[in-house]
Write a structure and sequence with these properties.
32% helix; globular
Amino acid sequence: MKHDKEPIHPLVEEWVRLETRRQFLRSGANALGMAALSALGGEAFAASPQPPSGKRKGVVVPGALPKLHFAPKAKHVIYLHMVGGPPQMDLYDYKPEMVKMYDKDLPESIRNGQRLTTMTSGQARFPIAPSKFAFKQHGKSGMWVSELLPNTAKMVDDMCFIRSMHTEAINHEPAITYMQTGNQVTGRPCLGAWTSYGLGSMNSDLPTFVVLVAQPSNTDQVQAISARLWQSGYLPGEHAACSFRAAGDPILYINNPPGVNTGVRRQTLDGLKALNQLNFKTVGDEETHTRIAQYELAFRMQASVPELTDLKNEPASTYELYGEAAKKPGSFAHTALTARRMVERGVRFIQVYLNNWDTHANVAGRLPSQCKDIDQACAGLIQDLKNRGLFEETLIIWGGEFGRTIYSQGGLTKENYGRDHHPRCFTMWMAGGGSKPGTIYGETDDFSYNIVKDPCDVHDFHATVLHLLGIDHERFTYKYQGLDQKLTGVEPAKVIKELMA
């Protein structure tokens, strides 16, 4: 009997069987699986989103949303995450009444049974520690800003402050995960991955979503952060962030090894692409397309990344904006400048992390250096984007994963104190990208402990950011495990219109 196809090796046949079974169990991708699952879950369950046609072709790569829900005000996002939780009452949430409460116990009526971390739950008392730093009002908005941020203070009328952020998490890992992904449990897509998935790329020669980890000048108490924070979760793998390094090659393994020229690399990639396409036809795993796309992107980045990261042609005026620290690779100022260059070249979402804000002790010794790292760079970034006509289409976000306590952790003196984690209230700010300039939203009590006006939780914040990008958070979903998954989860969330211009 003549066969139409070449016989398959038994080991390959077994691999295909197991791999296909895995795909069936994961996504119900074959007809029998879809029929059974549809019977269990209804027709809506079978309507799993498919990658849009032509998604990986051309210079501009469209996202999963063929048409945005609203006219977008922002095309790019630069998210500056301060890892560890900046103390809001030492930076932006001025509490002059606390001077009269120095070293007095925090009233139980204010704490009201709030859970504490194990770092202060055993303290005999909770002595109030007023900020030792002076505050002044600035701009037409009259925003109070600490003396530690003199350059940022000049920009307050371009910024939108949220003094009533709050979160459910009290420890770093779940709190950062919640702030980035909308869920305290790891494994969900982060805000950058959702943005990449929905909006697509504006320059196929560079990653759509990039992460930069800045090095603080003070490293007394850095927190562990990992790629789990910028993963794609259940979204296609291509929407995870590409991490740029501060030293050496910006991205590992994209350069040709010695003796391999561009022609050889192109021929090798063409062979790999053909093999991967054969694999996809056999198994049907959509992640195979991710591998093909990432190989091709890496090849294109061999030319685009060196040009992006080479700052030698930046004029002296650039460093007058960002400060001399911008010449030092890995500094926060350097990453802020690199973020601007990425926006110019069409990178959609840039996530910057700066560590060492976990001020359990020695606020007086550590906070000034942290603020020096960011102050001129943040102000310079805003001004630079304005000068280049990019400010209105670029949303800048600044903030941590929670706030700090008004009471001191450990010893208290007039000159120094510590502060523990505090999820009930903290301050964040936005600028550009359709956020409302000169706005001060929300209010806390005299102790910067509880919110007394206009609370904003993490899901409200995410819903607002998506809205500025032209996306309705309620209609932006991805079918996974039989559910329409959303960044904002299943609890009610609202867009805060007062934060938008």
